[in-house]
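Side project, low priority. Logging it here so it doesn't get lost.
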Amino acid sequence: MTALFALATSLLWGLADFGGGLLTRRAPALTVVVVSQCIAAVVLGVVVIATGAWSEAGGRLWFAVAAGAVGPVAMLSFYKALALGPMGVVSPLGSLGVAVPVAVGLLVGERPGLLQVAGVVVAVAGVVLAGGPQLRGAPVQRQAVLLTLLAAFGFGAVMALIAEASTTVTGLFLALFVQRMTNIAVGGTALYVSVRRGGRALPEEGGIGVVRAALPALAFVGLADVAANGTYSIAAQHGPVTVAAVLASLYPVVTALAARSVLGERMRGVQAAGAGLALLGTVLLATG
């Protein structure tokens, strides 16, 4: 069950990242984040009311609040790092956030077997290579590296926090709703500050019409992100966190494959090798 839900997490996060990446070509990144999370919050609010999940409110929800506060900071740091580039270095480094939940799992006493250790090493190496690391070329700015490491830590922290936010399915609905509301508060504040400083909340061309036309895609991105957080929480609760975290972190492979299928982007040799290693690591983790 752990492997199944963790792999579902990778699929959902990978598709959400791909969709979000396409949307940020047409609209400001902060607007994409805030609008997609607002749509997800509305859907989750209905689910919470329908299931009576409010009765599950408790101290664990602070983990959801923390995850919701960290998530937008990590995403914005990652976007800024990508802007500074080179993307061929920044993108693979962002996947190193898997070290956070893996470390948490080890600290709480998890001891993976030999095959699982090998699977972790092989899968992480595959994820990094699947990002197409740029080994030569333009120098990397120190600020880009620091922002990427901050983003990676944030992504890993969200994984660790959301896994602790609930112990039941209905509690998970409430935790995800609280996380989304915190995302909106943090992202909305950042958007307001950006606009006050001269930034744009709407695309230069098309304005609100572009955002309105993109609502179905924005809904998909927001709901896929919610579903990914949910499946990861279930995976981490029903099996070793070290296994769940690594399998859930295969999403860059999904994003690369989606770009190849939809946009016709050609995978470099190092990316193809990385995808193969990620698959091998998945097999080792699942059988270990």
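Brief comment: DSSP finds 13 helices and no strands in the chain.
Revisit when time allows.
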